[in-house]
Design goal:
Blueprint lengths: L1 H21 L2 E7 L1 E17 L2 E4 L5 E6 L6 E2 L4 E5 L2 H50 L5 H47 L2 E3 L4 E6 L6 E2 L6 E4 L4 E8 L11 E6 L7 E12 L5 E8 L11 E18 L4 E3 L2 E8 L2 E6 L1 E5 L3 E6 L6 E4 L12 E6 L4
Helix pairs in contact: 2-3
């Protein structure tokens, strides 16, 4: 009985050793094929509006009417809100009254200037006659001095009247400018859309007091949306304006949106060593929002009819890149030279040919070179 037990134990041990070291390992086969491969550069960014502005007020005031709300589409020049204009209307009326008074004043001083001119003309005639009389000894020297003094007084009155006319005209200009200024401030109580777009944010409510620069609305142009993505600086040499791009939004991870590189940044972040790439998206998701995250995959190269395998099948051993091939029922290590790397595939320049089979094992047995294998499944689609 002891002998039988030892035989059974040896048999079990032999079976275990055979199963662990010599029995064919179940593997999945991946036939090597030729196909198309696309090399892509990935970046992460957000959806932004190229044309956007913060709608604010030029003057201080209290909001009386809010005519538009978040999510509304507006046209250029459309009224968005109004400020309380009661005080400014009073200022306009005061300015108009001041302008009317300035007009009346200039008419008065013009009339005074005309009178002074007439007086001077008459004094000049009298002075000329007195000069003739004085020359004929018919007028005393005292009377001649009075005549000359009257002429000087008339000339001074005319100069004073002309200065008054100039001053009145300047006051009229000041009054007109003040009226224009008050009218401009009154117009500033009506805030209009600077361009056609979409209101995506509303920051104030009726009754709020605003000052110049206060954000009331955030207005964007939906026609100028793009994704601003951060890309590692090591990929800079392979990028160019106009390259095709796949855009994947976090809200729809299974949908690819077509786009193109619209602009390359010219400044690299000194902390992350990344730079901005602006991508114009042909079509956006039905539901989108400025600031939402997205991944961009920029196509930098494309090859057709080349040997490719899934990149996950590549192995690294002693500093070399390779894969395990199926050769005469055994696993054999094969060094590989790779080329373009795509999202899921890698180009094989040397080491594999179409028809070769790459193998991998997902079971408990470790797959190593020289081990007997048995292909029990194939990659779907091959």
């Amino acid at each position: 009985m002891k002998w039988i037990k030892w035989v059974l134990l040896a048999f079990v041990l032999a079976a275990i050793v055979y199963w662990l070291r010599f029995s064919p390992v179940p593997v999945t086969g991946y036939p090597v094929t030729r196909g198309e491969i696309t090399a892509e550069v990935m970046g992460t960014g957000t959806l932004e509006a190229r044309l956007q502005t913060i709608v604010s007020s030029k003057i201080s005031g209290r909001i009386s009417d809010m005519l538009e709300d978040q999510g509304d589409e507006v046209q250029e020049g459309q009224v968005l809100l109004r400020l309380d204009d009661t005080e400014l209307r009073q200022q306009v009326e005061i300015a108009r009254s001041t302008l009317s008074a300035a007009n009346a004043s200039i008419e008065r001083v013009k009339a005074e200037a005309d009178r002074a001119q007439a007086v001077l003309d008459q004094v000049k005639l009298d002075h000329q006659r007195n000069q003739k009389l004085f020359a004929s000894k018919s007028l005393s020297a005292n009377e001649m001095d009075k005549s000359e003094q009257a002429l000087e007084v008339a000339q001074a009155d005319l100069a004073k009247s002309k200065a008054a006319v100039i001053e009145a005209r300047k006051n009229l200009i000041v009054a007109q400018n003040n009226l224009d200024y008050q009218l401009a401030r009154l117009r500033d109580t009506v805030i209009r859309a600077p361009f056609a777009g979409l209101i995506i944010r509303r920051d104030r409510e009726p009754g709020d007091v605003v000052v110049p620069g206060t954000s009331i609305f955030l207005l964007i142009s939906p026609e100028s949306l793009w994704v601003r993505a951060w890309v590692d600086e090591t990929e800079m040499a392979g990028l160019a304006i106009g390259q095709e791009v796949r855009v994947i939004f976090r809200s729809e991870p299974d949908v690819n949106y077509a786009g193109k590189v619209a602009r390359l940044g010219r400044e690299t972040d000194r902390e992350t060593r990344q730079f901005l790439v602006d991508v114009a998206v042909a079509n956006l998701p039905e539901n989108w929002s400025v600031g939402q995250r997205a991944e961009v995959f920029i196509e930098t190269a494309r090859k057709k009819d080349t040997v490719t395998i899934p990149s996950r099948l590549l192995l690294h051993q002693d500093g070399t890149v390779g894969a395990l091939m199926l050769v005469d029922g055994k696993a054999e290590w094969q060094n590989l030279k790779t080329g373009l790397r795509g999202r899921e595939l890698v180009e094989i320049l040397e080491g594999l040919r179409p028809g070769d089979t790459i193998i991998t094992s997902s079971g408990s047995k470790r797959l190593r070179e020289g081990r007997a294998v048995k292909v029990t499944s194939h990659e779907p689609g091959h």
